[in-house]
Protein backbone atom coordinates (compact mmCIF):
# COMPACT_ATOMS: atom_id res chain seq x y z
CA UNK A 1 0.00 0.00 0.00
CA UNK A 2 1.33 3.41 -0.96
CA UNK A 3 1.40 5.56 2.21
CA UNK A 4 1.83 8.72 0.15
CA UNK A 5 -1.15 8.25 -2.16
CA UNK A 6 -3.38 11.32 -2.06
CA UNK A 7 -7.07 10.81 -1.25
CA UNK A 8 -9.91 13.33 -1.61
CA UNK A 9 -11.40 14.43 1.70
CA UNK A 10 -15.07 14.44 0.77
CA UNK A 11 -16.12 17.44 -1.28
CA UNK A 12 -13.78 19.87 0.49
CA UNK A 13 -11.12 20.05 -2.22
CA UNK A 14 -8.49 18.87 0.26
CA UNK A 15 -6.30 15.88 -0.49
CA UNK A 16 -4.58 13.95 2.31
CA UNK A 17 -2.04 11.17 2.17
CA UNK A 18 -3.19 7.74 3.29
CA UNK A 19 -0.57 7.91 6.03
CA UNK A 20 -0.59 11.07 8.10
CA UNK A 21 1.31 12.20 11.16
CA UNK A 22 -0.50 12.29 14.51
CA UNK A 23 0.67 15.00 16.87
CA UNK A 24 -0.41 13.81 20.33
CA UNK A 25 2.84 12.05 21.34
CA UNK A 26 4.78 14.88 19.71
CA UNK A 27 3.57 17.01 22.60
CA UNK A 28 5.42 14.80 25.10
CA UNK A 29 7.77 17.06 27.09
CA UNK A 30 11.51 16.55 27.62
CA UNK A 31 13.33 14.47 28.64
CA UNK A 32 11.06 11.75 27.14
CA UNK A 33 11.01 13.59 23.81
CA UNK A 34 13.24 16.56 23.13
CA UNK A 35 12.01 19.55 21.17
CA UNK A 36 14.76 18.94 18.63
CA UNK A 37 13.77 15.33 17.92
CA UNK A 38 10.09 16.21 17.69
CA UNK A 39 10.79 18.98 15.18
CA UNK A 40 13.07 16.72 13.15
CA UNK A 41 10.42 13.98 13.12
CA UNK A 42 7.87 16.36 11.62
CA UNK A 43 10.30 17.71 9.04
CA UNK A 44 11.47 14.23 8.07
CA UNK A 45 7.90 12.97 7.63
CA UNK A 46 7.19 15.80 5.19
CA UNK A 47 10.44 15.29 3.32
CA UNK A 48 9.60 11.60 2.82
CA UNK A 49 6.16 12.31 1.36
CA UNK A 50 3.64 12.63 4.21
CA UNK A 51 1.27 15.46 3.27
CA UNK A 52 -1.18 15.46 6.17
CA UNK A 53 -0.32 16.37 9.76
CA UNK A 54 -2.62 16.69 12.76
CA UNK A 55 -2.01 18.43 16.05
CA UNK A 56 -3.84 20.15 18.94
CA UNK A 57 -3.03 21.79 22.26
CA UNK A 58 -1.35 18.54 23.34
CA UNK A 59 1.31 18.82 26.02
CA UNK A 60 -0.08 22.18 27.16
CA UNK A 61 0.51 23.59 23.70
CA UNK A 62 3.92 22.00 23.13
CA UNK A 63 2.76 19.93 20.14
CA UNK A 64 1.53 22.98 18.22
CA UNK A 65 4.66 24.95 19.14
CA UNK A 66 6.82 22.13 17.80
CA UNK A 67 4.80 21.96 14.59
CA UNK A 68 5.14 25.73 14.28
CA UNK A 69 8.90 25.49 14.44
CA UNK A 70 9.07 22.49 12.09
CA UNK A 71 6.82 24.09 9.46
CA UNK A 72 8.41 27.54 9.52
CA UNK A 73 10.37 27.03 6.29
CA UNK A 74 8.00 24.55 4.58
CA UNK A 75 5.94 25.64 1.57
CA UNK A 76 2.44 26.14 2.96
CA UNK A 77 0.70 24.62 -0.06
CA UNK A 78 2.70 21.40 0.25
CA UNK A 79 0.80 19.99 3.24
CA UNK A 80 -2.62 19.81 4.90
CA UNK A 81 -2.80 20.51 8.63
CA UNK A 82 -5.59 20.07 11.16
CA UNK A 83 -5.86 21.17 14.75
CA UNK A 84 -8.55 21.10 17.39
CA UNK A 85 -10.62 23.47 19.51
CA UNK A 86 -12.65 23.10 22.68
CA UNK A 87 -9.73 22.58 25.04
CA UNK A 88 -8.70 25.93 26.47
CA UNK A 89 -5.21 26.61 27.87
CA UNK A 90 -4.81 29.10 30.69
CA UNK A 91 -2.08 30.02 33.11
CA UNK A 92 -1.99 28.80 36.70
CA UNK A 93 -4.92 30.36 38.52
CA UNK A 94 -6.94 30.65 35.33
CA UNK A 95 -5.43 33.84 33.91
CA UNK A 96 -5.23 34.41 30.15
CA UNK A 97 -1.95 33.63 28.39
CA UNK A 98 -0.37 35.69 25.62
CA UNK A 99 0.99 33.14 23.16
CA UNK A 100 2.62 35.88 21.09
CA UNK A 101 5.43 35.92 23.63
CA UNK A 102 5.68 32.16 24.28
CA UNK A 103 7.84 29.65 22.49
CA UNK A 104 9.34 26.23 23.23
CA UNK A 105 12.02 27.76 25.43
CA UNK A 106 9.73 29.61 27.82
CA UNK A 107 6.52 27.56 27.81
CA UNK A 108 5.00 28.10 31.27
CA UNK A 109 2.96 25.68 33.34
CA UNK A 110 -0.55 25.75 31.92
CA UNK A 111 -3.94 24.41 32.90
CA UNK A 112 -6.51 23.02 30.48
CA UNK A 113 -10.28 22.89 30.52
CA UNK A 114 -13.22 22.43 28.13
CA UNK A 115 -15.12 25.33 26.61
CA UNK A 116 -17.21 24.88 23.43
CA UNK A 117 -18.90 28.28 23.43
CA UNK A 118 -18.60 30.36 20.28
CA UNK A 119 -16.26 32.95 21.79
CA UNK A 120 -14.00 30.27 23.28
CA UNK A 121 -13.82 28.46 19.94
CA UNK A 122 -12.76 31.62 18.11
CA UNK A 123 -10.17 32.47 20.79
CA UNK A 124 -8.82 28.92 20.64
CA UNK A 125 -8.36 29.19 16.87
CA UNK A 126 -6.39 32.40 17.30
CA UNK A 127 -4.20 30.85 19.99
CA UNK A 128 -3.53 27.77 17.87
CA UNK A 129 -2.52 29.90 14.89
CA UNK A 130 -0.08 31.82 17.07
CA UNK A 131 1.52 28.61 18.34
CA UNK A 132 1.64 27.18 14.81
CA UNK A 133 2.98 30.45 13.32
CA UNK A 134 0.37 30.13 10.56
CA UNK A 135 -2.33 32.41 9.20
CA UNK A 136 -4.67 29.48 8.53
CA UNK A 137 -5.20 25.77 9.03
CA UNK A 138 -7.05 23.47 6.65
CA UNK A 139 -9.20 21.51 9.11
CA UNK A 140 -10.63 22.19 12.54
CA UNK A 141 -12.01 19.53 14.87
CA UNK A 142 -14.05 19.88 18.03
CA UNK A 143 -11.77 18.12 20.50
CA UNK A 144 -12.88 15.19 22.70
CA UNK A 145 -16.35 16.67 23.56
CA UNK A 146 -17.36 15.08 26.89
CA UNK A 147 -21.05 14.21 27.02
CA UNK A 148 -21.79 16.99 29.50
CA UNK A 149 -20.50 19.49 26.91
CA UNK A 150 -22.20 17.96 23.88
CA UNK A 151 -25.15 20.34 23.68
CA UNK A 152 -22.94 23.42 23.86
CA UNK A 153 -20.66 21.87 21.24
CA UNK A 154 -23.51 21.28 18.80
CA UNK A 155 -25.37 24.54 19.57
CA UNK A 156 -22.36 26.91 19.63
CA UNK A 157 -19.17 25.07 18.71
CA UNK A 158 -20.42 23.65 15.43
CA UNK A 159 -21.96 26.95 14.19
CA UNK A 160 -18.69 28.72 14.99
CA UNK A 161 -16.75 26.22 12.89
CA UNK A 162 -19.35 26.35 10.13
CA UNK A 163 -19.01 30.14 10.06
CA UNK A 164 -15.23 29.82 9.63
CA UNK A 165 -15.81 27.32 6.83
CA UNK A 166 -18.31 29.61 5.10
CA UNK A 167 -15.81 32.47 5.32
CA UNK A 168 -13.11 30.31 3.74
CA UNK A 169 -10.93 30.47 6.85
CA UNK A 170 -10.87 26.64 6.88
CA UNK A 171 -11.89 24.14 4.23
CA UNK A 172 -13.12 21.30 6.45
CA UNK A 173 -14.63 20.95 9.91
CA UNK A 174 -15.28 17.95 12.08
CA UNK A 175 -15.02 16.43 15.52
CA UNK A 176 -12.55 14.05 17.12
CA UNK A 177 -13.88 11.86 19.91
CA UNK A 178 -14.42 8.26 20.91
CA UNK A 179 -18.05 7.64 22.05
CA UNK A 180 -19.99 6.33 19.06
CA UNK A 181 -23.37 7.47 20.38
CA UNK A 182 -22.15 11.08 20.41
CA UNK A 183 -20.57 10.73 16.99
CA UNK A 184 -23.86 9.43 15.60
CA UNK A 185 -25.64 12.44 17.08
CA UNK A 186 -23.12 14.75 15.41
CA UNK A 187 -23.74 13.06 12.06
CA UNK A 188 -27.48 13.64 12.39
CA UNK A 189 -27.48 17.06 14.02
CA UNK A 190 -24.63 18.91 12.29
CA UNK A 191 -23.06 19.27 8.85
CA UNK A 192 -19.52 18.04 9.35
CA UNK A 193 -17.06 17.14 6.59
CA UNK A 194 -15.01 14.62 8.54
CA UNK A 195 -14.40 12.90 11.85
CA UNK A 196 -11.23 11.91 13.63
CA UNK A 197 -11.98 8.48 15.06
CA UNK A 198 -9.66 6.95 17.69
CA UNK A 199 -9.98 3.40 19.05
CA UNK A 200 -13.35 2.56 17.47
CA UNK A 201 -12.24 1.18 14.11
CA UNK A 202 -8.96 -0.67 14.42
CA UNK A 203 -7.78 -4.17 13.66
CA UNK A 204 -8.72 -5.36 17.15
CA UNK A 205 -11.70 -3.04 17.88
CA UNK A 206 -14.17 -2.73 15.01
CA UNK A 207 -17.31 -1.44 16.74
CA UNK A 208 -17.75 1.51 14.35
CA UNK A 209 -18.55 -0.86 11.49
CA UNK A 210 -22.08 -1.41 12.78
CA UNK A 211 -23.85 1.93 12.22
CA UNK A 212 -21.40 4.80 12.29
CA UNK A 213 -19.14 4.06 9.32
CA UNK A 214 -21.97 3.07 6.94
CA UNK A 215 -23.81 6.29 7.82
CA UNK A 216 -20.69 8.37 7.21
CA UNK A 217 -20.13 6.63 3.88
CA UNK A 218 -23.73 7.32 2.89
CA UNK A 219 -23.34 11.02 3.70
CA UNK A 220 -19.87 11.36 2.19
CA UNK A 221 -18.26 12.19 5.53
CA UNK A 222 -14.58 11.30 5.54
CA UNK A 223 -12.97 9.40 8.40
CA UNK A 224 -9.44 9.85 9.71
CA UNK A 225 -8.33 7.02 11.96
CA UNK A 226 -6.44 8.01 15.10
CA UNK A 227 -4.72 5.66 17.54
CA UNK A 228 -4.59 2.73 15.06
CA UNK A 229 -2.65 0.67 17.60
CA UNK A 230 -5.27 1.34 20.31
CA UNK A 231 -2.97 3.75 22.12
CA UNK A 232 -0.19 1.16 22.07
CA UNK A 233 -2.26 -1.62 23.61
CA UNK A 234 -2.10 -3.66 20.40
CA UNK A 235 1.67 -3.61 20.74
CA UNK A 236 1.69 -4.54 24.41
CA UNK A 237 2.43 -0.96 25.37
CA UNK A 238 0.49 2.06 26.58
CA UNK A 239 1.72 5.44 25.42
CA UNK A 240 3.02 7.72 28.18
CA UNK A 241 0.58 10.50 27.24
CA UNK A 242 -2.50 8.24 27.59
CA UNK A 243 -4.02 7.52 30.98
CA UNK A 244 -5.45 4.01 30.60
CA UNK A 245 -5.71 1.08 33.00
CA UNK A 246 -3.35 -1.85 32.61
CA UNK A 247 -4.30 -4.47 30.08
CA UNK A 248 -6.23 -7.44 31.41
CA UNK A 249 -5.11 -11.04 30.74
CA UNK A 250 -8.22 -11.49 28.56
CA UNK A 251 -7.33 -8.46 26.44
CA UNK A 252 -3.75 -9.61 26.05
CA UNK A 253 -4.94 -13.07 25.01
CA UNK A 254 -7.38 -11.59 22.49
CA UNK A 255 -4.73 -9.41 20.88
CA UNK A 256 -2.41 -12.43 20.97
CA UNK A 257 -4.76 -14.24 18.57
CA UNK A 258 -4.17 -11.53 15.96
CA UNK A 259 -0.46 -11.62 16.60
CA UNK A 260 -0.39 -15.41 16.12
CA UNK A 261 -1.88 -15.10 12.64
CA UNK A 262 0.46 -12.23 11.76
CA UNK A 263 3.43 -14.31 12.90
CA UNK A 264 2.19 -17.21 10.76
CA UNK A 265 2.73 -15.07 7.66
CA UNK A 266 5.73 -13.11 8.92
CA UNK A 267 3.78 -9.84 8.99
CA UNK A 268 4.19 -7.31 11.82
CA UNK A 269 0.89 -6.58 13.54
CA UNK A 270 1.56 -2.87 12.98
CA UNK A 271 1.45 -3.42 9.21
CA UNK A 272 -1.83 -5.32 9.45
CA UNK A 273 -3.28 -2.62 11.72
CA UNK A 274 -2.50 0.27 9.39
CA UNK A 275 -3.56 -1.45 6.18
CA UNK A 276 -6.77 -2.94 7.61
CA UNK A 277 -8.36 0.40 8.47
CA UNK A 278 -7.48 1.91 5.10
CA UNK A 279 -9.59 -0.72 3.32
CA UNK A 280 -12.83 0.96 4.40
CA UNK A 281 -14.07 3.35 1.68
CA UNK A 282 -15.02 6.04 4.22
CA UNK A 283 -11.46 6.15 5.62
CA UNK A 284 -9.13 8.61 3.92
CA UNK A 285 -6.13 8.61 6.24
CA UNK A 286 -4.62 6.92 9.27
CA UNK A 287 -2.49 8.99 11.64
CA UNK A 288 -0.38 6.99 14.09
CA UNK A 289 1.39 9.24 16.56
CA UNK A 290 5.13 8.54 16.69
CA UNK A 291 7.20 9.49 19.68
CA UNK A 292 10.47 9.31 17.75
CA UNK A 293 11.95 9.63 14.30
CA UNK A 294 12.45 5.84 14.23
CA UNK A 295 8.76 5.20 14.95
CA UNK A 296 7.72 7.58 12.20
CA UNK A 297 9.87 5.88 9.55
CA UNK A 298 8.73 2.47 10.79
CA UNK A 299 5.10 3.47 10.23
CA UNK A 300 5.95 4.25 6.61
CA UNK A 301 7.54 0.83 6.17
CA UNK A 302 4.53 -0.86 7.73
CA UNK A 303 2.19 0.76 5.21
CA UNK A 304 4.43 -0.40 2.39
CA UNK A 305 4.71 -3.97 3.69
CA UNK A 306 3.25 -6.68 1.46
CA UNK A 307 0.52 -8.72 3.19
CA UNK A 308 -0.73 -12.01 1.73
CA UNK A 309 -4.53 -12.21 1.35
CA UNK A 310 -4.50 -15.47 3.34
CA UNK A 311 -3.77 -13.46 6.49
CA UNK A 312 -7.10 -11.68 6.23
CA UNK A 313 -8.88 -14.92 5.30
CA UNK A 314 -7.57 -16.56 8.47
CA UNK A 315 -8.63 -13.65 10.65
CA UNK A 316 -12.15 -13.77 9.20
CA UNK A 317 -12.30 -17.54 9.67
CA UNK A 318 -11.35 -17.20 13.34
CA UNK A 319 -13.96 -14.50 13.94
CA UNK A 320 -11.38 -11.76 14.51
CA UNK A 321 -12.74 -9.50 11.78
CA UNK A 322 -16.44 -8.66 11.92
CA UNK A 323 -18.80 -9.21 9.03
CA UNK A 324 -19.08 -6.09 6.93
CA UNK A 325 -15.49 -4.95 7.40
CA UNK A 326 -13.86 -4.43 3.98
CA UNK A 327 -10.56 -6.25 3.56
CA UNK A 328 -7.41 -4.87 1.93
CA UNK A 329 -6.97 -5.98 -1.65
Describe the structure.
This protein is an alpha/beta fold and about 325 residues long. The chain has a single domain, classed as Alpha-Beta Barrel (TIM Barrel). It contains 10 helices and 12 strands. An 8-stranded parallel beta sheet has the order 3-4-5-8-9-10-11-12. It has a two-stranded antiparallel sheet with strand order 1-2. A two-stranded antiparallel sheet has the order 6-7. Strand 1 and strand 2 form a beta hairpin. Helix 1 packs parallel to helix 9 and helix 2 packs across helix 3. The longest helix is centred in the middle third of the chain and has 17 residues.
What would the keywords be for this entry?
329 residues; TIM Barrel; two-stranded antiparallel sheet
Summarize the structure.
The protein has ten helices and twelve strands. It is α/β, with parallel strands linked by helices.
Amino acid sequence: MDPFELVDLGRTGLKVTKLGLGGAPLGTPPPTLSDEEAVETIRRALSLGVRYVDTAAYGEGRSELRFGEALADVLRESYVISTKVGVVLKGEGGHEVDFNSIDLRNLPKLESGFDFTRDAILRAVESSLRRLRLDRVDMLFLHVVPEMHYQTAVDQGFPALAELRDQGVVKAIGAGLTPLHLLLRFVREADFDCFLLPNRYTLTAQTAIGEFLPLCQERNISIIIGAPYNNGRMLGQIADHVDLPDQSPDELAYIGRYRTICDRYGVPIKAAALQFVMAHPAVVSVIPGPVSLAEMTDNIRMMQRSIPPELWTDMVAEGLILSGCPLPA
